[in-house]
Amino acid sequence: MIRLLRARLRPYWRQIVVIVGLVFIQAVSSLYLPTLNADIINDGVVPGDTGYILRTGAVMLVVTLLFVLAAIASVYLGSRVSMGLGRDVRGALFRRVESFSQAEVNRFGAPSLITRTTNDVQQVQMVVLMILNVILMAPMMMAGGIFMSVRLNVSLSSVVLVAIPILLAFIAMMVRTALPLFTSMQAKIDRVNQVTREVLSGIRVIRAFDRTQHEEERFTAANEDLTQTTLKVNRLFALMFPMVGIVLNLSTVAIMWFGGKQIAAGDMPIGDLTAFLTYIIQILFSVLMATILFVMVPRAAASAERIQAVLETEPSIADPAEPARDVPVRGHVEFRDVEFRYPHAEEPVLSGISFVARPGETVAIVGSTGCGKSTLINLIPRFYDVTAGSVLVDGVDVRRYALKDLWRRIGLVPQKAFLFSGTVADNLRHGDEDATDAELWSVLGTAQGRDFVEQMPEQLEAAVAQGGASVSGGQRQRLAIARALAKRAPINIFDDSFSALDFTTDARLRAALKKETAGATVIIVAQRVGTIMHADRIIVLEDGTIAAMGTHAELLATNETYREIVASQLGTDAAEGAA
Q1: Closest Cα to residue 175, out of 284, 285, 290?
Q2: Quick one: 302 and 341 in the same domain?
């Protein structure tokens, strides 16, 4: 936690210095008032001494006003610093997560990253707010209270020397026990978040398979686990405040007892006892404020460690130290003996992959489910890095490009078409933020999406729900295709992007796509033979290797795997007739 705060609070050091000064003014004001009150009691007020009353009252009023103004200013600045810290840490986390490759995202998990960006940051933010607004005064009040109480009466001050170590020992024991519980509690918040996200994302599947009761039980288990851990923490700290109250009350009783004896013996003025009681209460109240900090710090420390773990994780895929520059844009893609295996996997997902996709060509990749088709094309934009061999774009290894330069050359339609909340135009302009409405209608026409967009009341300004939930699967795919086409990239990758389209729409889209991308490289992953049979080159993947490569006719004549795929979709006669 100290590392995180040291790094993130550095821009606010001037405000923090001002806050410390304001808190010091509050502490001095609080410590001065009991002394002033004691002097009044000890000196006595003569009836009719209006001048003394006015002078003393004016001084007390000024001191009180000074305290109030300093308190208002310190709370205002403390709130600005803590809120600014929360903003900065959330921003740093978001930027770091944005730079992560899929490997880092999988390592932490989406639910955990969300919890770290929200709940964990909030815990740290609240502790900083408490430190600056409340806790910062505690050591000043404690030190000042001890000094003033010793100055008034050394023998009575021994009560403080007994009370404070007892409290500190008890608090230290509590914190030591609570820290692992707080760490566990944050992990269990992750679990509740994960189950909730899964239920919300898969609600239709849950209902379709009548698993509502099962999911309720799963959520109840995660929720109950978090509840029990939270109760353990709360029971633990429930002991702390009574303990502080007991010590505070016993200390007050002891001071009254011994102070009363000293007053009776004439060794101590009654005003000093009144001031001494005030100082003791201030000292023990400072310990109480510190206790509040000790309640919050362990959880915030656990949260800070989780935040720091994300911030200190370097993305496995990043820009090279000296990226390639001024590489001519052609759209040439080449795989050279590529191998890829996921982290900690025993066997590679892809091995021995070599082929070339040239500008103006359409290369299709087909194969059974799980053979590595999507993994293969994810290597081109460097969503993953090859573990052997190389992937070249325009003659340069993709690992030598600055990521932005590489991504500018690629228009991608992922397997799961995802749309962002906003409007149709907003989503299409992810491809080209400067695209005109005419250009958007043009790419919509190519993607066979113009008709349904024109039927929307607001057309290009029609609202799109998060994830594209407000449109059908086929419409979502066509909008995703239009978004990629709006980019006018020299390399276009379609990862099973036509699966939700009917055969007629598929055929029209492919015909329009051929004209739209005439000079570009097109790589298509598809399950339908009808989608890829007219490709310039078809690659048949089998168990992560290239089983065959050629045109539709060549593969029918030479490759049994491809014939089986064709026969399963178009019928045995079609496969045998073409062969």
Answers
A1: 290
A2: no
Question: Looking at the structure, do residues 94 and 225 belong to the same domain, yes or no?
Answer: yes
Q: Pairing state of beta strands 491-495 and 521-525? A: parallel
pLDDT at 44: 60
Distance CA 568, CA 184 (A): 52
Distance separating alpha carbons of residues 277 and 34, to the nearest angstrom: 9
Tell me how far apart the alpha carbons of residues 377 and 362 are, in angstroms, rounded to a whole number.
Answer: 14
Distances 254 to 249, 266, 276 between C-alpha atoms, Å: 9, 18, 12
d(CA 531, CA 499): 9
| Number of domains the chain contains | 2
Rounded average pLDDT per 10-residue block, the chain, 579 residues: 75 86 85 73 61 76 88 89 88 86 79 83 86 81 80 77 78 76 78 82 77 85 88 79 78 82 77 78 76 73 84 82 83 88 81 88 82 85 86 87 86 82 83 82 84 83 78 82 85 81 79 82 82 82 84 81 75 51
510: nearest Cα among 498, 526, 493? 498
Is 368 inside any structural domain?
yes
- The enclosing domain of 148 has a CATH number of 1.20.1560.10
Q: Is 324 contained in some domain?
A: no
What is the sign of the dihedral through the CA atoms of 437, 442, 443 and 449?
Answer: positive
CA 464 – CA 476 distance, rounded (Å) = 10
Q: How many helices (H) and strands (E) does the chain have?
A: 23, 12
Number of alpha carbons in the 13 Å side-chain half-sphere of residue 42: 17
Q: Which amino acid is at 511?
A: A
Location of structure tokens 């070249």 = 392
The full DSSP string for 60-72 is HHHHHHHHHHHHH
Q: Taking the CB of residue 465, how many other CB atoms lie within 10 A of it?
A: 12
- Which one of 278, 311, 344 terminates a domain? 311
Q: Match 């390592």 to its residue by tokens.
A: 107
Q: Which amino acid is at 284?
A: L
Domain that holds residue 511: 333-578
Read off the pTM: 0.69
